[in-house]
Amino acid sequence: MDAVIAKIIEHSDEIRRSHIPSDVSEEMKKRIADSIITSFGARDAPPVRIEKKVFLPLSGNLSSRVYFGAGRATPDIAAFINGSMTRYLDYNDTYLSKEALHPSDNIPPLLAIADAMDYDGKAVLEAASLGL
After folding, report:
1. Model confidence over 55-90: pLDDT tens digits?
2. How far is CA 109 from CA 38, 75, 97, 98, 114, in A?
3. Cα dihedral: 24, 27, 31, 34 (round 10)
4. Which residues in the chain belong to E strands, given as ranges?
5. Cα 85 to the chain's mean position, in Å?
6. Which of 5, 40, 62, 85 could cross-link to 72 by cystine, CB 3.0-4.6 Å?
7. How far apart are CA 101 and CA 110, in angstroms?
8. How far apart are CA 96 and CA 102, in angstroms?
9. What is d(CA 101, CA 119) in angstroms, rounded to the nearest whole number?
10. What is the pLDDT of residues 39-56, one digit of tens each?
C-alpha cells in the first residue's frame, strides 16, 4: 500500500475512534449549511438547468438526491450537479484560509455518497472533518 494512502487511512481511523471536538463539529455544521443554502440560490441557474437536462436522463442507479427536489441520480452525477449549485454563486466565503480551496468543495460529493450509502449525520461530520 502506498505510504500516503496508509497515512490517510490511519488519520481517518483516528477521527472515527476519537471524539470530534465540538468546535470542529460546529464549524463543519456551518460549512454544510453554508454549502446547501448557497446552492439554493443557484438551483435554477442556466448552467444548472443544462446539467440537469443533460445528465439526469443518463443516470443509472438513482441512489443520491439532487438538491431541492430535482430528482435522484448516481452519486457522481448528483455530486456534480449539487457541486455546481454550491459554487455557482460563490457566496460560500465565510471560510478564510491561505489556500484556494474551500471546505464546501468536498460537501456535495460527501453528501451524495452518504445518501447513496445511507450514512447518518455523525458519519457525514466525521468525513467532513477529515477535510478541515
Report:
1. 999 878 889 999 998 789 999 999 999 999 998 887
2. 16, 7, 21, 23, 8
3. 160
4. 64-66, 71-73
5. 11
6. 62
7. 16
8. 8
9. 25
10. 999 999 999 999 999 999
